Automatic annotation (TrEMBL):
Stated role: Plays a role in differentiation and/or proliferation of mesenchymal stem cells. Proposed to be involved in epithelial-to-mesenchymal transition (EMT). However, another study suggests that it is not required for EMT or stem cell self-renewal and acts during later stages of differentiation.
Residue stretches spanning the membrane: 164-182, 202-224
Gene Ontology CC entries for this record: endoplasmic reticulum membrane; Golgi membrane
Name used for this protein in its record: Motile sperm domain-containing protein 1
Lineage: Eukaryota, Metazoa, Chordata, Craniata, Vertebrata
Pfam families registered for this protein in UniProt: Motile_Sperm
Organism for this UniProt entry: Eudyptes sclateri
Membrane topology: Multi-pass membrane protein
Predominant subcellular localization, coarse grouping: endoplasmic reticulum
Length: 226
């Protein structure tokens, strides 16, 4: 039994994680249903916890069951009411502190702070949220638009000119068409550079395929042959 007690988790003061939901309370002046909020404290541990709720401005709130206990692997609801709704408190952030300790000890094993805020209108808050989301979407849309317009001229410039391979192929085809045809005797060009009619037709076809001059060079080939 003594060894089992020593193997229990070390409950260091202030280091025990506290699980509570939600972590923020928002009260709306024009919506009385929000003047009552519920905090849920969870106890995932294998030992019971006792809790205490503290507040920076206790005169503004009423906490039902500000102290209590939570059984192992259970949860408990803590009701908090806002009892002093006035315009001067709009936007002011108050804090609740939820402290937990082991039932057999007084020291606080863990704590969690919850922010509480009073706002004038739920509808205004929703409208502001929607307007903010709309502004973000418009900003993102504009950013994408400008990026595309900046990239388009650069892409057109890169793809407007012919590649080196295409230029080289065109030069080879032109040179082939300028060489003498087989059968021409009066030529200073060596005989092995004389091309047949079919070879010149192929060169003219390739040149026309890539440069649009097919008809011109086919006509030229016919003239050379005649």
């Amino acid at each position: 039994p003594m060894q089992q007690q020593k193997r229990q988790p070390e409950l260091v003061e202030g280091n025990l994680p506290v699980f509570v939901f939600p972590t923020e309370l928002i009260f709306y002046a024009d919506d009385q249903s929000t003047h009552k909020q519920v905090l849920t404290l969870y106890n995932p541990y294998e030992f019971a916890l006792k809790f205490k709720v503290l507040c920076t401005t206790p005169n503004k709130y009423a906490v039902v069951d500000a102290t209590g206990a939570v059984k192992p692997q259970c949860c408990v609801d803590i009701v908090i009411r806002h009892r002093d709704v006035r315009a001067s408190y709009y936007g002011v952030m108050d804090k609740f502190r939820l402290q937990v300790s082991e039932q057999s000890q007084r020291k606080a094993l863990g704590k969690k702070e919850i922010i509480a805020t009073l706002l004038p209108s739920a509808k205004e808050q929703q409208q502001q949220k929607e307007e903010e989301e709309k502004r973000i979407k418009e900003h993102l849309t504009e950013s994408v638009f400008f990026e595309q317009t900046l990239c388009q001229p650069e892409n057109r410039t890169a793809s407007s000119g012919p590649s080196l391979l295409t230029v080289f192929l065109g030069i080879v085809c032109i040179a082939a068409l300028m060489l003498p045809t087989l059968g021409e005797m009066e030529s200073l060009v060596p005989l092995y550079l004389h091309l047949s009619v079919n070879q010149k037709l192929v060169a003219a076809y390739v040149l026309g395929k890539y440069f649009g001059f097919c008809k011109c060079f086919l006509a030229t080939s016919v003239i050379w042959e005649t």
